Structures are given as structure tokens and as C-alpha cells.
Amino acid sequence: MDIRPLVSQVWRYMRHRTRAKSIFWIHSPFVFGLYTHVFRPAGDLRAASAAIGKRIEAARLALATSREVLAITDFGAGHAGQVAPLIHRSVGDLARTSARHRREGEFLYRLCVHLQPRRCLELGTNLGISTCYQAAALPPTAEFVTLEGANTIAAVAQRVLAENIPAGACRPRIVVGEFSDTLPLLLHGQPWDYAFVDGNHRYEATVAYFHQLLPHLSAGGCMVFDDINWSEGMQRAWQEICAHPAVSVSIELFFMGIVFVHRAQVKEHFEVAL
């Protein structure tokens, strides 16, 4: 067994922890507000975040025990013009290995509470766990579209959303199909304020998503990228995204990266421990 990738990831995490800024080193008012309301919340928001987490994690626990087997067309396998392979995975396996962890889900909830985006886009619905966290933070007037490649997974996610998003919150719409077909159809009309990118975790795909979304994001809009330290390719994609001149603020949380585009401020980069 080759343990070098694991050792490399541990080393990267330790380096991130040593570089991570505390509140005393953050002088940007915008990022300071994020730190105090999203990264290190207190009071009512912390309690609301925990309550949402308890509700959604109960749903995840139920999913994790499911033996239902899904036939999944694997569009993320890099099929390059060939017929995408069909794989079989249980709902329980997907819930245990692919769905967003509670700490990260509660962070997404607080981020959406703080930003209150009007139009939201998610690339990678999976079982709908992260979708629930984000949609629960938004009013019913917000538009939330989430993209999923596999119709069998989308069917399960639809049930999860219907049963676990609180009444009076945003109701997401799932669009099923390969992202290369569905995403261009959504990039028209009013700009998007927020995008959570959790799809194909390869360098080429991640950078392509960024460039596709960038012209259609509102001024000051937010993009969140999942698993930025998952591989060397994802690290390279994250570094390239942060360096783009349209990115005004970039924040690394090790497991996620957040960028804000076209803000009227000096370009800044932060590493923050969650």
C-alpha cells in the first residue's frame, strides 16, 4: 500500500494550520465580518447552525443504513467521448463516503445566512445533504438550482430535500444531466450570486467550471470549491483560481476554498482554520 498520498495530505494540513490566521491578524473588514459571523459564530447563529446540523445529520444517519443499490452513470470518470461507465453503489455507501460532513455543512449554512444570495447554483447534488444545509439558510424567494449527473441519485436527493428542508426555506430545483450539457443552459439571464462547486474533482474540470461561471457571477459574488487539497491537481486548480485577476478575496479552509470576485478592494488571500 502506497501511503505517500496520505503523508502528503497530512503534511499539507499541518502547513495550513501553521499559516492559518486568527482574528487578531485579519485586518480586512469584509473578511473580519466573515470570521466573526461564519467561521467563529456565537449566540443565535451558532445555535441555529447546530439545530440545522442535528436535523440534517439524522437524515444522513438514516441514509447511511440504506442498502438500496443505485445504477449510476459515472460522468466524472473522464470518459473522453466514450460511453460513460455504469457503476453500482448503495445509498448507504454514498452517504458514508461522499456526502458533506456536519462541520462543513454547518459552515455552508452559516455562509449562506451571512451572504443571503438571491440566485444560487450548486454543481454536484449527490444525495442532497449539502443542498439541505445551504437551502435551509435562504428564504423561499431565493432561487437555488443544483446539478446532478445521475438520475438515480437525483431521485434519492429529491426525497431528502422534500423531507429535510424546514418549512419557509428555499426549495431547490434539481437539474439532471452531464454538466457539460446542463450548465451552459443555466448561464444566461440574471447573474448568479453564489456557486458551490462540488462536481468533477480534477484540475481540468475545476478550472473549466471557474471560467464558465466567472462571467455570469454578480459583482462581489461568491464561489466555493470543495476538496481543494484532495489531490495535486486540485491544489494546482485552486492556486490558479486564486491568482486570477478577477478574484478579489480568496480564503482557504483546507477542505474548501472560497473566492469573491469583482469586489472593489485590494486583492487579498487568507488561510483560516475552521
What can you see in these coordinates?
The protein has helices at 4-19, 29-39, 43-64, 91-97, 102-115, 129-135, 151-164, 179-186, 203-213, 232-243; strands at 69-73, 86-90, 119-123, 143-148, 173-176, 192-197, 217-226, 247-252, 256-261, 268-271. It has 274 residues and is α/β, with parallel strands linked by helices. The chain has a single domain, classed as Vaccinia Virus protein VP39 (Rossmann fold, 3-Layer(aba) Sandwich). The strands form two sheets. Strands 5-4-3-6-7-9-8-10 form an eight-stranded mixed beta sheet. A two-stranded antiparallel ribbon has the order 1-2. Helix 3 (43-64) runs antiparallel to helix 4. The longest helix is centred in the N-terminal third of the chain and has 22 residues, at 43-64.
Topology of helices and strands:
Elements: H1 4-19, H2 29-39, H3 43-64, E1 69-73, E2 86-90, H4 91-97, H5 102-115, E3 119-123, H6 129-135, E4 143-148, H7 151-164, E5 173-176, H8 179-186, E6 192-197, H9 203-213, E7 217-226, H10 232-243, E8 247-252, E9 256-261, E10 268-271
Parallel strand pairs: 3-4, 3-6, 4-5, 6-7, 8-10
Antiparallel strand pairs: 1-2, 7-9, 8-9
Helix pairs in contact: 2-5, 3-4, 3-5, 5-6, 9-10
